[in-house]
Design a protein that fits this description.
single chain; 503 residues; alpha/beta; seven-stranded mixed β-sheet; four-stranded parallel β-sheet
Length: 503
């Protein structure tokens, strides 16, 4: 088993179809196969044990991903947005490696020991050492070989390298995508960065389905809208912050995107108001909210198009609130929400989320497999399920607020605040308190006119309980998000001293 099987199948059945880039001048499946073969030959002629990619989204991504798989080495995309020292440290960890880079990456990574650098534009040149392209079918077929290494965000220490093996990625694609199911006019816009699991999953899934990939090198909502229109994009995957910015841009421009047929979003906390407005601005699109992790080879839980339309049209506030949920597990995936003692939490009871399935890897280079003896992976995310089996994500274990010995999840407070019609976004977090150890603070983005602080507090008191009521409320213009859509709570707390005035 090797992810190269996916490209071989696609090139055999749809080799003349454009696989990546614009319809006029893009890479066909046959060219993608040929360039991957040439890169695999170059890797094999070197002493590389990894293929590092330091570049923006483009045709170079699938060439590198499949070229690495063909050569039998892991594909390691690294975050080109990092500071130079951090970028070089990640590259050093992958050495000896062949690094495919853009011109700026070549300069930034020059001199790293064990790194052989090849600029993206030189990939089509004949290798100086005369390496020959790899032969079709001669890729290794060990399902347990490492296919991809993805560095985690490193919010609590140096980034760890998550290991995704060929069997995990192939299982994910086989379980979620029908081969050659895309029509010749379908196109997927790829705007998430290469070092995000969503990028890896999208490349494999779109090639296997036969859907053309349209890369957007740098995300900007107006550029995204313009490219969607210019290239006839029908499918999209976004992190929630991207979706919210696109919704705002469409409203500003007075436009809707009638030709888009499917929008998937995930990788961060979704905002119900933005989703509801997106359903109006993408009138022909089915929406899917995906929950997953790097360690699970992407999605494990989905709320699909039918649920989106049903909950958006419901007059029942509890049903409508399900637009903020992550949906239900994919076929073949099991979700378990557990209390601190390891026992199963009932519906409506918060706990830690565990997941099990064929594409769940749960492994790191530094610490080995993290699966328990029964194959369960501890996500370190907290959440709960409701009576219908929908999963609600509250946040990371590290985000838990401990007030007077009581643990509370910031996500449940945010979910309640977002039900207020004037609240656009909210972030809850714990701040030091002399009396309680920690107390609840929130940053809130609102529409004008802003609601009264006491109204927001009363909303939380009514829907939850008095201990969850924010002691401090601050109205802000924006919240800190990473480029992959994660709320950076660690940047919120330093604004507050113990028992400082607020709200």
């Amino acid at each position: 088993m090797n992810v190269m099987m996916l490209l071989e199948m696609a090139a055999t059945a749809m080799g003349d179809r454009v696989a990546v880039g614009p319809l006029d001048g893009g890479f066909t499946g046959d060219r993608l196969m040929g360039d991957a073969a040439a890169l695999a030959g170059r890797v094999r002629a070197s002493n590389a044990e990894h293929l590092v990619l330091c570049d923006e989204p483009g045709a170079v991504l699938p060439v590198s991903l499949f070229g690495a798989a063909w050569a039998g080495v892991p594909y390691v995309p690294i975050n080109y947005r990092l500071a130079d020292d951090d970028l070089r440290r990640l590259a050093e960890r992958a050495a000896p490696a062949l690094a495919v880079v853009d011109p700026s990456g070549a300069e930034r990574l020059a001199g790293v020991d064990g790194l052989e650098i090849v600029e993206r534009d030189a990939l089509s040149d004949d290798p100086a050492d005369g390496a020959q392209p790899a032969e079709v079918g001669d890729w290794p077929m060990d399902p347990d070989a490492a296919a991809v290494l993805l560095y985690t965000s490193g919010t609590s220490g140096p980034p760890k390298a998550a290991v995704l093996r060929h069997r995990h990625l192939v299982s994910y694609v086989f379980g979620t995508v029908e081969f050659a199911s895309a029509g010749p006019g379908e196109a997927h816009i790829m705007a998430v960065p290469p070092y995000h699991i969503a990028s890896v999953a999208a490349q494999l899934s779109q090639v296997y389905s036969g859907r053309r990939i349209v890369p957007l090198p740098r995300f900007d909502p107006d550029s995204w809208i313009d490219l969607v229109r210019a290239q006839g994009v029908t499918h999209a995957m976004l992190v929630p912050t991207m979706l919210a910015r696109i919704v705002d841009a469409l409203d500003r421009r007075g436009e809707a995107l009638e030709a888009v047929r499917f929008v998937s979003y995930g990788g961060g906390k979704s905002h119900r108001a933005a989703v509801e407005r997106a359903l109006e601005l993408f009138p022909a699109a089915g929406f899917s909210h995906a929950y997953g992790l790097t360690e699970t080879s992407s999605t494990v839980c989905v709320m699909g198009p039918d649920d989106h339309r049903r909950w958006a049209a419901s007059d029942d506030p509890d049903e409508r609130a399900r637009l903020s949920s992550a949906g239900r597990p994919l076929p073949g995936v099991e979700i378990s929400v557990r209390r601190g003692d390891g026992t199963e939490a009932g519906a409506g009871t918060a706990g830690e989320i565990w997941v099990r399935g064929a594409h769940v890897a749960g492994e790191y280079v530094e610490g080995g497999s993290q699966l328990d003896e029964d194959g369960w992976f501890r996500t370190c995310d907290r959440g709960h399920t409701d009576d219908a089996g929908y999963l609600w994500i509250h946040g990371r274990n590290d985000d838990i607020i401990v007030r007077g010995g009581e643990n509370m999840s910031p996500g449940e407070i945010e979910d309640v605040l977002l039900t207020h019609p004037a609240v656009v976004d909210a972030a809850a977090f714990g701040v030091p308190s002399r009396e309680w150890g920690e107390e609840v603070a929130v940053w809130v983005i609102t529409r004008s006119p802003a609601p009264a602080v006491d109204d927001l507090r009363e909303l939380v008191r009514t829907r939850l309980r008095s201990s969850r009521v924010p002691a401090r409320v601050e109205f802000v213009d924006e919240l800190p998000y990473s480029d992959t859509g994660k709320l950076l709570r660690r940047e919120l707390r330093p604004r507050f001293a113990p028992d400082s005035p607020g709200g």
